[in-house]
Amino acid sequence: MQKYTYSAKKTDNKSKWLLIDAKDAVLGRISTVIASRLRGKHNPLFTPHTDMGDSVVVVNAEKVVLTGNKLKQKTYYRHSGYMGGIKSITAEKLLEKSPEDLIRFAVKGMLPKNRLGRQLFKKLKVYSGPDHPHKAQMLEKFDV
Length: 144
What we know:
The chain is of the alpha/beta class. The protein is 28% helix and 17% strand.
């Protein structure tokens, strides 16, 4: 009898809701943990082509820390599609304007660039303050 490699299905996943506090956490370090949890790499049943991860709620995004000179030197770009339509914003201004986006951009860059990555990204919820509307999901506090 020949044995086959087991490939997990989405129905095999018992996903949880995790609460991560970003207060005084380094942006890159916390982003790798979040991306890994969204992807499901902590799970022994991890399958690269299947969503085996947890849903993640991040609070206190405005209190995240960037090391070195990244606050002033790191630049985020976007393009309108028109000629000369490139816009840029520094990490410092983005942290003031929309601190949630700082974490979202970092995590999105660590996820796969395909439809699975887009599906995983929807399970990330980021809030700038300590309050969030996900009390009903029975969040597990996760220390980074």
